[in-house]
Amino acid sequence: MIAIRGDRLLDDLRTLARFGGLSPGVDRIAFSETDLVARRWLVDKLAAAGLEAGLDRVGNVLGRDPAAAKAILIGSHTDTVPRGGWLDGAMGVIFGLEIARAFRESGTSGPVGIDVASFQDEEGTYLPFLGSRSFCGTLRDGEIAAARAEDGATLTAALAPLADAPAPFRLDPARHVAFLEAHIEQGPRLEASGKKIGVVTGITGIRRFRVTATGAANHAGTTPMAMRRDAGAALVRIAAWIGEAFPGFAAAETVWNIGAMAFRPGAANVVPGEAEMAVEIRDLDVALLDRMEQALAERVAAENRGGVAVAMVRPTVVAPTPMDPSIVAALSAAAEAQGHAPVLLPSGAGHDAMELGRVLPAGMLFVPSIGGISHHVSENTADADIVLGCQVLADAIFRIMQKMS
Amino acid sequence: MIAIRGDRLLDDLRTLARFGGLSPGVDRIAFSETDLVARRWLVDKLAAAGLEAGLDRVGNVLGRDPAAAKAILIGSHTDTVPRGGWLDGAMGVIFGLEIARAFRESGTSGPVGIDVASFQDEEGTYLPFLGSRSFCGTLRDGEIAAARAEDGATLTAALAPLADAPAPFRLDPARHVAFLEAHIEQGPRLEASGKKIGVVTGITGIRRFRVTATGAANHAGTTPMAMRRDAGAALVRIAAWIGEAFPGFAAAETVWNIGAMAFRPGAANVVPGEAEMAVEIRDLDVALLDRMEQALAERVAAENRGGVAVAMVRPTVVAPTPMDPSIVAALSAAAEAQGHAPVLLPSGAGHDAMELGRVLPAGMLFVPSIGGISHHVSENTADADIVLGCQVLADAIFRIMQKMS
Question: What keywords sit in the KW lines (chains A, B) (predicted)?
Fold first, then answer.
């Protein structure tokens, strides 16, 4: 048993929230001056907890347990979206700091220690998951050179202040045995169920599609219905089919969305000559995603008639990342031991654990998001839920260590 | 029988097309210098044809037959949309000029003469149907003072160069017995049917609706389907219903359109929190328009559930304007006499005849639009079809005059 100290945990979280603090909310986008100052503060905190800590050339912070040859890595990210919340990412990092401290204070010793990481630019200001992908060695040649923020600023320029920092830290397969990440849920399920702990079964895969229709823009008063080539009507039929047919394909946790729809030229009295919509589907099951994509592609092809050309492209595919079953079991057992039956659920949002989970056994714990809100200054979680989450994560890590020894 | 001269008609049309001419196409927006110069040219042409002609303070050109106490008014407009075509409006005005000349040359005399008008700003650069509404006395107080072009320019400033012109010409109920307007079809029906003459049964009424939905924008990965308040999905269901149900309400000539659809915030991974669409319906039959509006309102109200507020407003109502049955009969008989069975059809687009038809017996003749195109530099009609249209209009006017005498 490792007993964390809730007061210290909350103090550190609140201190970190002052870097870029908006009260409420935090603006600490990757590579901003506040982000780098916060990362250096974290290095000092990790060092004070007895870890060998540093900031590498891509902005990753890593603290290593100097007494252990193997380690469980705990981490998340300390960068935020613009005008974001104080917990998204930060909470998982400070959980790592607190658990490393509590582990050391407990006098527990064994072959497996605790390392702590804050990965850079999880939020994708320049390149989503830059830090975790650098750490896992999965960045492709040229990705850093090509990456730009929305305002046009290059990642290369953002990296310049770190030119003298150590070479990028890398996952050490001989050392790192597992990755654990705690995070706010960013959804409404825990709050709606009245439960305090979510254990993530996997991070869903994403298929994102752009469906376009090209017909002919015509005067809506003078063009008889039978002579129209209405691009908008074609997409409405496909969108309505999605609403009616997708529930028949879906598993309990499948989600989909038509997030964007636009008709052009977009005037009340002009038959739409062009139309476009964005569709996405998320699930853990690749075979199910394949079936839904296939059905959508067939429905799109069937609409390709009557002088309207309908086409579908797939700009985004993210493979699902299942969490490690033994870590899921350890997190669940630790929640039960604290008197809290866990909710097992997929993560529909991406996390650093998605990148780490592809190369290491990984697990994630969720705490409730008040109102399901995140990426907003009002993002919050009850203090007691934050403390409980950290204690459950500490217990789970203790259980994983016991299994290993 | 009044025999028009096709060569002279085409010459005048081509001369007029040089004012603001783009070759092809014409840019002669209301109150531009080219518009006013073209209107002064028209005054001279009408005077040369023996009419008492002038340009009034709102930009209307009127030529009056000095020998007649009563008159059939022939007209349309000589202003265009930006980068528009050479026939939209201009053709109907030059038909009037040619028929007035041909009438005079024919030596025909009787109690009813021919007046010719070019109304100002039919296209609504500042105020749609400004000229015909001024002529009919249906402008409301303050409309001129409030009217602005899209670029912010005021109608008041546009009127300044005409400050010394005569007071606005007015419809004279004791004089004007009928209004006749010839126009390009601006649609595909004549071309598709292989017919040359369209006789307009009426100008359709328009009901335009804005349907809005307000739900909640949420993360499309973390928000379960059952917990969403998806504004976009609500509008898709209504739009799909329109496509399925409206044909059951519609008469043969009814048209409707969903011209605009937008989801906000409009990102692939965000459930739409707000959505909006523009719906319009056009028909000659007010009772049918009422039934369709009622059915749409009920369908919209039925979607107002599950945490999504759906509402409908009606920013635009235009009453239908039936054409005068005896004028429809005269135009049809004149077409038959020229060996061309007419197509009887409603006008789904607005015209000056809509304003005049509310206060005078009115009729419209259409000639084919090549490719159904208008409001574009490529707008065109075969020369032979233009000449035929003018001859049919002249014959119809002769028939109407004979009935009156």
Answer: Hydrolase, Manganese, Metal-binding, Zinc
* Residue from the list B186, B227, B243 with its beta carbon closest to the beta carbon of A233: B243
Q: What is the predicted pLDDT for the residue at A339?
A: 97
Residue A405's pLDDT band (cuts 50, 70, 90): confident
Output the pLDDT for position B306.
86
- Mean of pLDDT values over A275-298: 98
Residues in A 103-162 with any Cβ partner in B closer than 8 A? none
Distance CA B97, CA B41 (A): 12
* Domain carrying residue B185: 6-204+320-404
Which residues, in sequence order, are bridge partners of residue B277? Answer: B211, B261
Q: Which residue of B has its CA nearest to A185?
A: B222
Q: What is the pLDDT of residues B123-160, one digit of tens each?
A: 999 999 999 999 999 999 899 999 999 999 999 999 99
Spatial CA neighbour of B119 closest among B68, B187, B183, B203: B183
pLDDT at B217 over 80: yes
What's the rounded mean pLDDT across residues A9-26? 96
The count of structural domains within chain B is: 2
Is B123 within any annotated ligand binding site? yes
**Is residue B31 within 8 Å of residue B125, measured between CB atoms?**
yes
Q: How many CB atoms lie within 10 A of CB B319?
A: 12
pLDDT value at B170 more than 90? yes
Q: Residue B269 and residue A259: Cβ atoms within 8 Å?
A: yes
Q: Which of B230, B239, B372 sits opposite A218 (nearest CB)?
A: B372
Write the CA distances from B147 to A158, B120, B355, integer angstroms: 51, 14, 18
Structural domain contains residue B338:
yes
Length of chain A: 405
* β-bridge mates for residue B213, sequence order: B275, B310
Question: Looking at residue B60, which CATH number applies to its domain?
Answer: 3.40.630.10
pLDDT of residue A1 exceeding 90: no
Last residue of a domain, one of B318, B343, B371: B318
Please check whether residues A334 and A393 belong to one and the same domain.
yes
Q: Is residue A351 within 8 angstroms of chain B, CB to CB?
A: no
Q: Is the pLDDT of residue A121 over 90?
A: yes
Q: Which residues of B touch A275 (CB under 8 A)?
A: 261
Q: Which residue from A219, A255, A267 is facing B224, i.e. has the nearest CB? A: A255
pLDDT at A152: 95
CB contact under 8 A, A263 and B259: yes
Residues A275, A228 share a domain: yes
3-state DSSP assignment of residue B7: helix
CB under 8 Å to B68, separation ≥6 — which residues?
A: B111, B112, B113, B114
Give the best residue of B191, B207, B227, B257 to mutate against chain A (max A CB count within 10 A): B257
